[in-house]
Amino acid sequence: MIPTSKNHYRKVSLKDKESIHDGLARVLFFEYSLKYESIYITVKKGNYIGAICMKGKKILGWILGIAIVVGLGTWGTFAVLGNVNDYKAIEKKHETAAADEGDISRDVDQEVVHTPIAKDVVTLADGGDGHTFIADTHSFLNDTLGYGRVNSADYRSQRANAEDVLQALKGAKVKNKEITADFKKIEEYANVVFKEDNRDAMVQLHRLFHDLDIYFNGYDYDQTWGVTDFEGE
């Protein structure tokens, strides 16, 4: 049906057009007459069908309007999708970094890589051994800093741990020069954490204890950060 007048309406039943929702104007037919340079549009709103005829400049304006709307819609879609992808990429990056700060996963089927070093290599001032001290501190840091908890960790507990570390190393007897150098690094970072809320220092402290725990206690995996001078015997 091509309407011949600018505003031609007739009452229809909604059953005539099942795809049309009452109350919404929707284009039913779109016809372009090259001969008369006219566009005929049949639209539906409510229970009425209407016809609109546009000529000359009106056609150009109407087409430009559609082009602008479609263009903006397409741009908006890509912008949203781009932001979603960027967000996912950022999230993925954060998840990877968070996992890196956790204890590196173990495979229980692997053979032990390092043989635990002798107990007398490190003796703390209170008579305790270095193996237990390093394992316990590493466990605490895993629980409080691992898997994305670095930024949300309670500073007071980290400060208290740093103080305990400094006290434990004070007066400790060490029979290995490389371990002595590593303990100096630990003292430096522990002092920073004790004095201020420094998350980078917490991370470095965690990594030092992670590597030393592997070398001291001989676990079944060998993924280290490579931050210690001591690398096992």
Quick overview of this protein structure:
The chain has five helices and six strands; from the N terminus they run ββββαβααβαα.
Report on the structure:
Keywords: Membrane, Transmembrane, Transmembrane helix. The chain is an alpha+beta fold and 233 residues long. Among the domains are: 1-56, no CATH class; 119-217. The protein has five helices and six strands, in the order E-E-E-E-H-E-H-H-E-H-H. Strand 3 and strand 4 (48-55) form a beta hairpin. Helix 2 (130-145) packs antiparallel against helix 3 (155-169), helix 2 (130-145) crosses helix 5 and helix 4 (177-195) runs antiparallel to helix 5 (199-217). The termini are far apart.
Please write out the topology:
Elements: E1 8-11, E2 26-33, E3 38-45, E4 48-55, H1 57-101, E5 122-123, H2 130-145, H3 155-169, E6 173-174, H4 177-195, H5 199-217
Antiparallel strand pairs: 1-4, 2-3, 3-4, 5-6
